[in-house]
UniProtKB/TrEMBL annotation:
Major localization listed first in the record, in broad terms: membrane
Keywords attached to this entry: Lipid biosynthesis, Lipid metabolism, Membrane, Oxidoreductase, Transmembrane, Transmembrane helix
Cited InterPro entries: 3-oxo-5_a-steroid_4-DH_C, SRD5A/TECR
Keyword check for Cell division: no
Pfam families: Steroid_dh
Protein name listed in UniProt: Enoyl reductase
One of the record's GO molecular function terms: oxidoreductase activity, acting on the CH-CH group of donors
Organism: Phakopsora pachyrhizi (Asian soybean rust disease fungus)
Family, per entry: Belongs to the steroid 5-alpha reductase family.
A cellular component term, taken from the record's GO annotations: membrane
PROSITE patterns found in the cross-reference section: S5A_REDUCTASE
Lineage of producing organism: Eukaryota, Fungi, Dikarya, Basidiomycota, Pucciniomycotina
Keyword Iron-sulfur tagged: no
Coiled-coil region(s): none
Membrane disposition: Multi-pass membrane protein
Length: 330
């Protein structure tokens, strides 16, 4: 027996004529293997063949079948054979070069670094901040606490990116780093900081009780609880996936009995408490709203994946009334 697979550069059209034209294209790679069968050839074998033939790194490759379904090997040892993807001998497999890649960890570190230099630049007295605010600013305790919250939050994020987070995918397209960084460098960097650290801000105004020690202590306590809870969930999620594996388990315990993403819930609470201490000025309200909306979309997607993967599991049962991010609501 022999295996014969045509590896065709991905085209924008998926109609039959386009497929035939692609098959006749001189860029088509012929993967042929004597004395083998479709149930013995792995997806990784096709990728390694493309790498040897065209010098395209494995992380840059995306393979799909004739129906456009992306072929993903989610086994720890990359052991998934072609028959598991319903491929047959003489089938066409499309491949696409995704372009230059960058590691997810690097993207996270770059994203979170933005607020760590933007906030100090606007908080401290220097030529740039003096030009923006019209001179040195004497900050009150609310502004100092807000600055501390931001710095601790993003330093925590950086440390988690280095020591805690484990990623399903090794890389992402390099061009995405600019889009992903916009949220942190602009929204949580420039736009969040500018209105808060000026001389005449909501944090500097007389709001009675909302400037009292009792209220500030409450906001700080809520923020601390949320940040520590977020860290606790991240450490737990790390424990579910051994290093170098793609194992997925249904998370349980702290918050997971109510929502599938309590880390997002606690993140939202942390920024909500940040907004409270700043009397929800427009920048903190905008950032909290956009962040919570984005995390809600991610949580809904994760919930959908959990339901698909564990709906028939006897060992890992989906909790009744399980929500995505907000208990009993969403």
């Amino acid at each position: 027996m022999a295996v014969d697979i045509d590896l065709v550069p991905k085209k924008s059209s998926s109609n039959n004529k386009a497929r035939e034209a692609s098959r006749n294209n001189n860029k088509v790679l012929k993967f042929q293997l004597e004395d083998s069968s479709i149930d013995k050839v792995r997806l990784i074998d096709l990728k390694n063949f493309i790498k040897r033939s065209l010098n395209i790194d494995l992380n840059r490759q995306r393979l799909s079948d004739q129906n456009g379904k992306v072929l993903v090997d989610d086994d720890d040892e990359n052991s998934k054979t072609l028959d598991k993807f319903d491929l047959k001998d003489h089938d066409i497999v499309y491949f696409k070069d995704l372009g230059p890649q960058i590691s997810w960890r690097t993207v996270f570190l770059v994203e979170y670094f933005g607020p760590l230099w933007i906030h100090p630049m606007l908080f401290t007295s220097n030529p740039i901040s003096n030009l923006i605010y019209g001179g040195p600013v004497v900050h009150n305790r609310v502004q100092k606490i807000a600055f501390g919250m931001v710095m601790v939050h993003f330093m925590k994020r950086e440390l988690e990116s280095i020591y805690v987070h484990r990623f399903s995918n090794a890389t992402m397209p390099f061009r995405n780093i600019f889009k992903n960084s916009f949220h942190y460098w602009i929204l949580s960097g420039v736009l969040l900081a500018l209105p808060i650290y000026g001389q005449k801000t909501l944090g500097s105004s007389n709001f009675g009780f909302f400037n009292s020690t009792l209220w500030i202590t409450f906001c700080c306590g809520l923020w601390t609880f949320a940040e520590l809870s977020n860290l606790k969930v991240h450490l737990y999620l790390k424990s579910l996936r051994p290093p170098g594996t793609k194992i997925r388990k249904l998370p349980k315990g702290y918050g997971f009995g109510y929502v599938c993403c309590p880390n997002y819930l606690f993140e939202s609470i942390a920024w909500f408490s940040f907004g409270l201490i700043n009397k929800f000025n427009w920048s903190s309200l905008l950032f909290w709203s956009i962040s919570t909306l984005q995390m809600s979309l991610w949580a809904l997607k994760k919930k959908k994946n959990y339901l698909k993967e564990f709906k028939d599991s006897e060992k890992d049962r989906i909790p009744k009334g399980w929500k995505a991010i907000v208990p009993f609501i969403l």
